[in-house]
Request: fold
Amino acid sequence: MYDSDTILRMERLPHSLTIVGGGAIGCEYACLFKVLGLEEVRVINAGGRILPFADDEISNMLREAMESLGIEFHMPDPVENVVAGPPLTVHLNSGKRLLAEALLVTLGRRGNVAALKLENAGVRLDDQGHLSVNDRFQTNVPHIYAAGDVIGGYALSSMAMEQARMAMVHAFDLKYKSGVSPFLPIGVWTIPEISMVGETEPELRAKGVPHVVGRWRYDANPRGVLIGERWGLLKLLFSLPDEKLLGVHMIGDNACELIAAGLVGMTLEATCSTFIETCFNYPSLSDLYKYAAYERDGQNPARRRVRIGRRAGTILSHRELTIYAMRKTILPKCSLAAIMRCASAASAIGTTL
Ligand SMILES: Cc1cc2nc3c(=O)[nH]c(=O)nc-3n(C[C@H](O)[C@H](O)[C@H](O)COP(=O)(O)OP(=O)(O)OC[C@H]3O[C@@H](n4cnc5c(N)ncnc54)[C@H](O)[C@@H]3O)c2cc1C
Reply:
């Protein structure tokens, strides 16, 4: 039986791995071990959705993508108990009994502060055992600072480093930074990757914030077609009526890099027209931003005006437009190798060139 630390010391690959927990670490390891060639990888999750913090559309797509890799899900179905083996027997709430050669438990991590006896220095912990801090990362004892996983919230290196920088700036009066950005990205290294910043659609709905959604799929983007990414999606959330960018959600190849355009956009208070006015490289995945902005709730002007060849007078779907673009725009300019990649991308979306 492993946790997210001891799994790094695994000496040989098992034939099968059962993972308890459908959060970021559970899903990342599930993808990793499946592509390492394990015959069976199972994820058991108490809730009905993996990555509950992510936008629901994105986490549902991730589940489909992981299932297509051959990963099996048992959810919503909490673990009742585990009986020692080998093999281990995992009893689920539904009455299912799973035999596990190897078990990885990813149900959250705790700060290792209890043994430090911080109370001797007067430092208080909250009910969850986290250190409480102010916006300069001072604990209730002003010359003792805390940053990273021990203060709770999302456990991410990027956030831990920003918080620690802010603490140092304050402690040494360095003045080069005034605070931690309110826009913090989350990256999940599943296959495919997921990344997000800002509000999710369910959060906006719950708060009653009027908004529009712009989506564009990788398989409707020429570069996405070339790389054959089936699962990619960029989803942008804009407020109404001012169309300010409120959230960016991505699944697909390089999502953890591509989120940067949205992240900087949110920091600089971008609106939908910021992306429409920007000229992106072609063919590039960055161009997803422009098309997702065009597409906000079906308002894509390009889509309304398309009239092509023998299909004059009809409105073409994204897929038809992509195939048209591949045939007319990319192929005549491409090397043989690129044409071969195009042909395999076309076969991935069920067509020929
Ligand atoms: C499997 C896994 C994958 C992850 N992937 C990502 C990712 O892709 N991207 C990302 O941004 N984040 C990721 N994270 C989260 C990230 O690792 C943490 O959020 C980040 O390391 C927090 O930094 P930290 O300095 O607060 O704590 P840590 O990095 O845990 O550092 C704490 C240090 O304190 C030491 N220590 C502990 N107790 C004591 C003690 N009593 N006395 C002295 N020293 C002590 C520890 O040995 C450790 O070196 C991942 C975490 C896990 C477990």
The two ends are 50 Å apart (CA to CA). Residues 4, 25, 112, 115-116, 148-149, 155-158, 160, 187, 189 surround flavin-adenine dinucleotide (CB under 6 Å).
